[in-house]
Amino acid sequence: MPKWLNDAVFYEIYPQSFYDSNGDGIGDLEGIIQKLDYVKGLGCNAIWLNPIYDSPFMDAGYDVRDYKKVAPRYGTNADLVRLFEEAHRREIKILLDLVPGHTSDTHPWFLEAKKAAESEYTNRYIFTKTVWDAPPQYRMMCGLCERNGNYMVNYFSSQPALNYGFAEITHPDWQLPTDHPDCLKTVEAIKDIMRFWLDKGADGFRVDMADSLVKNDEDKTATAKLWRGVRDMLDEEYPEAAMVAEWCCPERAINDAGFHMDFYLDHYGNGYSCLFRYGEWGDKAVFNPNGEGDLSAFTEEYLPNYNRTKENGYISFMTNNHDMPRVTAYLDKAAIKLVNAFIFTMPGVPFLYYGDEIGMRYQADLVSKEGGYSRTGSRTPMQWNSGKNLGFSESDEPYLPVDPSDDAPTVENQKDDPDSIYRVVTDLIAIRRKYDDLHGNGELEFMANKGQLPFSYRRGSLVMFFNPLGREAELQTAYAGDVVYKLGEAVISNGRIKMQPQSFLMVQI
Ligand code: NOJ
Description:
TIM Barrel
């Protein structure tokens, strides 16, 4: 287990929207290098970089055309190496985004695989035996190639699924077992890509759709076994490298598959969304001040998962990512501050999505860009200052429009404002990194309160109290101590804490 993870706070950067250094309208690696001091200033010591590989961008780069080449719009491989070096100089780690489940349909492997003539790539993807064979339970693209067969896709139609074999073989004429030499070659191809970037200075990978590799793998045992082999490779060759799974099933991802971290996401049951987003527009979320939320959907799901995986890895909370509406679509400013207090005081390894530190707004009505669709509104350019395109780019045609409102939050207008989300996020990250008890593997104990609000939990010597309600409320507590941090007013006396609406208190006992 890489030791650095225990104290890690990640910043997710969507490269096309972060900072455009050359005025072509699109963010680039040089732009990220220029903003590393900003990332460091947030208190983050690690970055997850969304895909930067060569791609036709039908899915924002999750459709890879060349895993070993940086997309020219972002720079060169040499620029990426420079980014690793500059980040390391500032004690910041960088995880690339590994997309092992599928490639672009323009990837050279696929261009070979779809030909009638056999080649070493014939089994790199999943093709049926003939074009007349299209079992409806699989997502097949039919009649599109010279080869007499249909191919399976993993996500969008432009993303053919790589072939790691089938756990249960239901169509023996075209489904291969996972130990077929050609499926094993696919695994080796992915390890080869990992080594390529780790040797150049990457610190590991966020793994896209990590659970999707082996097909007909209902309980994911075969997929987990495959990843365990990858983890063995890392342990032996790159023991400091880290992997975080987009899996959302910590027992499988961490205990079985060997991921160091697993994301706690909206589509993992109800737990994450019940905190911040539950109900169509968050009206049943725990942090909604209307008080319709109930914490038990979270605690009953999260705590057993946490207890069963905490010895082996970390569950990662995120403020958001590039696939979900930003939390500003659901909650008000006071609630968002509490959300951050929660995320940055829980165990595991937290992730801050770019722009969430200033409360960037979800831009609901944008036309889809590069396969974003409803996700596009969370992918707009970072808002730095009051300049052109809010400081993102000098171009007249930025990648996406910036927030057009007069009061659009920017780093510039939030930095010195004591009431800003920026201030709360940076304060909380600093506190998290200062106190060992708040690090990834520090203890956690929820005070039993049957899911009711307010609520409270203890992390070693630190106790957190939250009143997400829009009204004053009280809670019994066995703890009192020195105030470490607070949002709003809360006072402990005689075994009770009295909390103002939407307040938070952290004490050291
Ligand atoms: C999950 C990624 O986060 C998302 O952005 C992408 O579209 C799909 N996987 C497909 O790769």
